[in-house]
Structures are given as structure tokens and as C-alpha cells.
Amino acid sequence: MSSERGLPRLTGLAQTIGFEITEFKEGSCVVECTIRDDHLNMGGVAHGGIHATLLDSAMGGTLVSTLAKEEWCATAQIDISYLNSVGVGERLIASGGVARRGRNLAHMEGKLVTSEGTIVATAKGTWAIWETRPSSQNR
Questions:
Q1: What is the CATH number of the domain that holds 132?
Q2: Which of 57, 88, 96, 127 would disulfide-bridge 62, Cβ 3.0–4.6 Å?
Q3: Which residues constitute the domain of residue 49?
Q4: How far apart are CA 125 and CA 99, in angstroms?
């Protein structure tokens, strides 16, 4: 499965933000990012959008690692609980897990922690799964 594809490519957004995929194997995807000044919100801590994008990337990547080569998926819904704030220099590590997978839907879980192990956010989400790439995605 994932061994046929190798590491997934980062989107332009993920590259701009500074994400790194540090693990990608069947059933697991870990995405990391070190918080920079331009990641901060007006309160001086990492913007929640960084957390959400890290979690979406790790959870989606985890699901992708389990898909057959011809299958396709997309995020349908994510619910995030923000638990702790982080500042510049903190290393964030997002990981995902498959809670349950059916033929057309997958329920995913995610966790975002600092390099010291402090839980920053958790997430649950639903992904749609197609047997083949939808025609709307053929570009």
C-alpha cells in the first residue's frame, strides 16, 4: 500500500507553513512544525489554524497510508479541542489514528503535542472515501 507510493508530497500551503512529514507508514503519519513569529495570532501564541492544519494533515495522511492505490479520500468534518497554547520555538508534532473505517467513510482521531509531550490539541474527524479519484479532482 503506502510502500508503493513512498512519502506523500507536501502541498504548497504545508511547505509555506514549514511542515515536515517525519513518519509515513501503513496506519501512521506524523507531521511536525516549529512555531515561528509569522505563525502567531494577535495574542502572541500559535494561531489555531496552524493546529488545525497540522491535525488535518496527519489524520488525512494516516488514512491515505491505508488506502489502496486507486482509492481517494477527502476531509468531510473535523472537530478540534484546543487545550494549551504554544509560542515561538515550540516544536509541534501531530499524529493520526483510524478509529473506524468503512467502505465510504473513515472516522479518524488526532493528537497534537509539543516535543516535550504536552498535549496542545486533540481532534476527531470524518473522511469520505471513493473507490477511484472523483472526476472533479482530475486536473
A1: 3.10.129.10
A2: 96
A3: 2-137
A4: 10
